[in-house]
Amino acid sequence: MVALKAVPTRPHGAAWVECVRHEAVIRTHLAQRIRLTKVRKLLRRQGVDLPYATLRRFAIAGPRLRAHGPDVPVADCGPGEEVQVDTDG
After folding, report:
1. 54 or 7: which carries more pLDDT confidence?
2. pTM above 0.70, yes or no
3. Closest by CA position to 22, among listed 37, 38, 43, 36
């Protein structure tokens, strides 16, 4: 049996810090159902150039911006091996 482990995280970079600084603007635009690509363009007009991937991760990770439920850790194994996980507790 394999025990599931949390995926290790790495520290956020400068682009993430910019997302945090402009969280209110990002949240306002998303509440108005503006697409992330458009939010990125609007931020760029204000001099904030963010990679789309970082902006997307920020929108998904934000507690009030989350687009889906919590991530589920995945147990992995080598080629030709079988993973069995007991989900009953």
Report:
1. 54
2. no
3. 43
